[in-house]
Write a structure and sequence with these properties.
CATH architecture of the largest domain: 3-Layer(aba) Sandwich
Distance between the termini: 36 Å
Shape: globular
Helix content: 25-40%
CATH topology of the largest domain: Rossmann fold
CATH class of the largest domain: Alpha Beta
Radius of gyration: 18 Å
Order of helices and strands: HHHEHEHEEHEHEEEEHEE
């Protein structure tokens, strides 16, 4: 059976809900913060793993970095290529599974953003991804992982929600947690635009301590945790979980 993250129709159909106008507009400001966290100077090489439509890749390239954007979805990379040409940004685009891609000692920094970590039912595959990232970085280089932390999920958890989207459609969301809080299943229904779409996707939510442990096991010597890309504390007021790991 094909897993949800291997379904191209899933990604293409729901791209407008993942890559909203607000999220696209925030790319430049987020790229500025990512550059600070990575500590990479202009001319340095950066890997954007699970780059999607390339919003961070392009923003980083426009700031003078040599960027490699990796994603498994061809339609996203095609859109990224068009956007990069329009903005005059040079980015290397690579279609590859995150469990496979690695280049030994190739990058001065790496990012994995918007909860693009934790897709796999077997946690050993998450560890494999982390080890690939570790191997792909040069000694002393940093990795930034940005995700929805388990602590934030618990604080703000709602089993069912709905919202009206800018295009007039209604998004209904239902969430189910495993009894051990180690797996989250999300079911989305979008009603509007003359059709109804449904999807179900799952992921492993990580706490700060858990993602630090995975990155340490992958070989990173130091892992700092923050509550946003701007380095706010990862505490009860955190908006995101940001792990900065140094090789």
């Amino acid at each position: 059976m094909t897993e949800w993250y291997e379904d191209d129709e899933f990604w293409e159909s729901f791209a407008p809900y993942f890559f909203t106008a607000g999220r696209l507009e925030s790319s430049g400001a987020e790229a500025d913060e990512l550059v600070k966290l990575l500590g990479v100077a202009p001319g340095g090489s950066v890997l954007d793993l699970c780059c999607g439509v390339g919003r961070h890749s392009i923003a980083l390239a426009r700031r003078g970095l040599a960027v490699t954007g990796v994603d498994r979805t061809r339609a996203f990379l095609d859109r990224a290529e068009v956007s990069a040409r329009k903005e005059g940004a040079s980015v290397e685009w690579v279609q590859e599974d995150m469990r496979v891609f690695k280049r030994s000692n190739a990058f001065d920094g790496a990012i994995n953003c918007v909860t693009s970590f934790g897709y796999f039912a077997d946690p050993a595959e998450d560890l494999l991804v982390a080890r690939n990232l570790h191997e792909s970085l040069k000694p002393g280089a940093r990795l930034v992982i940005e995700m929805m932390g388990k602590e934030i999920l618990a604080r703000d958890f709602h089993e069912r929600t709905w919202e009206r989207l800018p295009n007039g459609a209604i998004l209904l969301q239902e969430r189910k947690l495993s009894s051990g809080w180690d797996w989250l299943e999300s079911h989305w229904i979008v009603v509007g635009q003359k059709r109804r779409m449904e999807l179900t996707f799952s992921s492993r939510p990580y706490s700060g301590a858990e993602i630090r442990e995975v990155l340490k096991r992958a070989g990173f010597r130091e892992v700092e945790l923050f509550g946003s890309l701007s380095r706010s504390p990862y505490d009860n007021r955190a908006s995101r979980l940001v792990a900065v790991a140094t090789k």
